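dumping these here so i dont lose them again. two proteins, back to back, each one seq then structure tokens. dont judge the mess
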Amino acid sequence: MSLCFLTRHPIITTRTTLPPYCSLPLNSIISSSGEKPAQSLPTRRSTSSSHAPPMLIIPTSKTKQPQRRAVSSSIPVMVCDALDQAINKYMEPPLSPSMDPNHVLAGNFSPLDELPPTDCPDIDGEVPACLDGAYIRNGPNPQHYPRGPHHLFDGDGMLHCLRISRGRASLCSRYVRTYKYNLEHEAGSPLVPNFFSGIRGVAGIARAAVSITRALTGQVDPRNGFGLANTSLAFFGGRLFALGESDLPYAIHLSPDDGDITTIGRCDFDKTLSFGMTAHPKTDPDTGETFAFRYTFVRPFLTYFMFDADGTKLPDVPITSLTRPLFLHDFAITKKYALFFDIQMGVRPMNMILKGGHPIGSDPAKVTRIGVLPRYATDDSQMRWFEVPGFNIVHSINAWDDDEEGAIILIAPNVWPIEHMLASMDLIHCSVEKVRIDLKSGTVSRTQLSDQNLDMGVVNPAFLTKKNRYAYMGLGEPMPKMSGVVKLDLELGKTVATRLYGPGCYGGEPQFVPDVNNNEDEDEGYVVSYVHDEVKGESRLLVMDSKSSNLDVVASVKLPRRVPYGFHGLFISEDDLYKRQHPLSISSSSRILF
């Protein structure tokens, strides 16, 4: 696999002085913050990978952490900083609760500093052996307190990893060292406006003008991207990636020894990936292939692509049948098809200019559609669009082919009312539906499986793209916090198990971890989630028995500090950490651009 990493600032540090851009062995690299772990977990010798481990060309630095620069005395910097302050003070209209940082960043949404690997000695119950590995979750964590408006979806990506091995646990929290993070860390303050909060109304236009001035005067380089990598993670082709759909993936290395997190760099897969990639790629558990897309505000508005099992990106498939830009956060795949959702949200620049709203807004007059494209299509000539009025999908759960009936089955929550998706998430309701697309007749039917407010659903990963029976959903009361987790029977169309976290306790997306030692049944395994007690001010990882009638808690790991509410995560088994994850290196043919 040939990858390409692009970065502008040092992201890896060494204990010794070495020539810049040298190739380093794994044992000479330390975490991205330069701190040693407080205590290491039991280790074992790594076994050889089936992939030929490439080498990494790494920029080195004598310092342990990018040092914040002194306040620049250059006229362009001072002018832009002054303009930013003036915009926030005089041009920004009164902030709504969804944009007021004092509201958005309150309680367990407030950001934290990094945490090196820290032992978690307080464990109730026994952690099952199949959880030996790492549970890692992404989420927004602004490194600087916002000087103006701030939305929940903004904030630098921070990864929270719980490494578990032989009954012991260690927590580590690290920023994703994006270009934007490094730039603003060095400056000591925000420089680039965030997409969901900074580009609104006249003030947003003024901020965009200041950003253009910063680019023209060399203060920032737009070619390096301004993504936050704060939404999710994906593990494919032997690499772990932190994802945010507005930018390229950032490659991450997770230490098998103590769970420490290192940002390798921004990845364009040898110049084959541009602009960005969905934060929800899908990996087929049988073939190892990974499927993804990107959407932009210029033609082609949607582009579909895939990676082979080794992580090599294949050619783009532009979707030319779309006539206007859309907002597409997630999609679904089956063994035969890829499904895309054209929902009642899209780009509305006039809403920003004339009403001071956000460029992404709802369109109640639009008829929602599902696009169906053959999974291995090389162009969009076989794309078919099916109207599904009022069905707004933000997150899909699973999809599969019904070959006997010539149909596709899709499982996903329907978000209503969609106009509150960005501004008032506590007012939205997500009811899970089963959608049947008859490819012969062209008809679409819908069946509601639950009227509970359920989102952030997962299935046994071995059943992705295949017919499955159970989904594990976060219970939103209200969104975006989850008051519990629900096991939904997709055949019976009802909830068969519920675990409420208790008064003042909230979690996020649940994660299903199959029991590899006893995997005869689809639901043989455990559901895990970070849960925060807002009364006690402490966080835990809960491990729940997925087959029990009440999702019984079999183990609870008290964390050394709270973990803020966040977005999506995944579990990586210990075997994958040692065998499938490439060492902290990449081929010498790859390049780092400055």
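---- next one ----
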Amino acid sequence: MGVIGFCIHYAIALVILNKEIKPSVGMLYPRESETREVRSLDGLWNFVKSDPTNPTQGVRDRWFADDLSRVQETIPMPVPASYNDITTENELRDHVGTVWYDRKFFVPRSWADKQRVWLRFGSVHYEAFVYINGEMVVRHEMGHLPFEAEITNFLKFGEENRITVMCDNALIQTTVPQGKITEVSRDNGVAIVQTYSFDFFNYAGIHRSVHLYTTPLTYIEEMEITTDLSKDNNVGLVYYKVKTNGTAANEAENNLYVRIQLRNKEGKIVANETSNSDLKGVLEVQKVMPWWPYLMHPEPGYLYQMEVFLHGVNNVLHDVYRIKVGIRTLRWNNTSFTINSKPVYFRGFGRHEDSDIRGKGLDLALMTRDFNLLKWIGANAYRTSHYPYSEESMQFADENGIMIIDECPSVDTENFKQELLDKHKSSMEQLIHRDRNHPSVVMWSIANEPRTNQLNAGSYFQYVANYTRELDPSRPVTAAIAVPSSDDKAAKYLDIISFNRYNGWYSNSGRLDMITKRVIDEATTWFKKHNKPVIMSEYGADTVEGLHLLPSYVWSEEYQTELFSRHFRAFDTLRKESWFIGEFVWNFADFKTAQTVTRVGGNKKGIFTRNRQPKAVAHLLRQRYFALGREVDQCNFPEDLFTYIADVRPSRNAKHDTTDL
């Protein structure tokens, strides 16, 4: 290729177009009602690992056409769970490529009568190919997000059926997140090696629950709910849009309508309405109980239950669906973020869905423990770093009044090309489609630590940010940025500036005297450059549980405690400026990473251990978060916040001033 030809090819490669993204359809969370049944397929499945050097063998040899046990030796594998840490084999832990699952299930004869049957996965990482009785029914790319398919015509009613899933965990430069796969020579041949720059383990498998559920032939397919408050928060407005599908919807859409009822926590109907054929409207709630974050109100996380009844010709009842609704309003400008017209100061965490043995598999016991710890420590928010968390955790956040910065799976994004942009936008579309009705979701995060200093980063993130606003203008857009503000090309397209910085750890390790001023200066620089609210979305230090060193030294619990204290000083200075609106610790708990010599069993920046026990700094952070809650939100202190020391009374001759406090 000549110089001119190279230049033309290079220029074409740099062109990024804002293409249309295929919208998600359906995906309501499976709930039983008068017209719907739900069955779980969770449990022990049969499992086969493919040869990493021959990942498509199972497709070519049609493993999906029969029981896996007839073509390969299988092992039991729990669903939901990551498969990596279940066995004692490092070949499975570090496997790259495809794996296969299957199991048998019965479908009752009654399900064949005038209804549809759906198969829904909460999440499979990273790409899934799903077969029913040997026929492919759905393919989905993107971990951490749900997908479904109607399988009515693939089932044998009143008989045994087989479901087969091929899961591929390979990450390349056009997946979200990105990775690279290489062949590396080893003692007895060649190894297929997956590498990635993000700092958490690439767990894989069927991570969340698998459900069968039924709907009537004519059914409620989607619901979109937005809320507002008026008259000094005394009147709530609930706007709804319902989308239907099915036989009657196709033949006579004008004959369909919905009847909506809204019940309070006591079960009393506080608002109701019957729609026109456009299936949308607004409910007005008098003496409303707004949805408030934890510690901002004596009754946080107040939820109403919306009941939706779909009727057709002659008022025939087709379908019933129920969903929880929190009534609140969000506002933001260049110096503040408010909920229900009250300024918010975020105090929370970056987290991970991660635990021993289960990996990223849904674990309701662990999830419940985590929310108890969040409330124990006085946090009011967290970011779903660095991917969407389970739907069950989003529901838990709604109920507990924990605000969520909802992040898509884009992490360490680089090499900004067209195919990557299309998938990145698709990940945001799927995330917003899934989570738009959650009152706990107060912000969308479009990336974590993207390489926003690179060529094309500006136009790339302009497209992603604008697309996110098109999908949902009711919430601000942010991203956690790690490049210096002088090099960044993306922040100008955001509504809220979030930045990650590890002063005293990655920068100037061990220097506690090089933290406070640097945090203040960087936050101020971001605000002066963009005139937008600023959050410090990550700070912290790796800490080995039980390591105590005096004077403090890196990796010790003393060092983590002092490092946090130096950040607190910076935050308190910044809080005097209204534009600084939040502080997020990295991380809530220790978590697993890829093997490196800088990670002893994983990332140890958690204030809790991986099994959710507190390090010393957790008690300090708890005192700070509740102190902030008392100052900002007028909450009460827990009785056990401060440990009794002594009843010391000053002597008559002692002199004190305010610095003694």
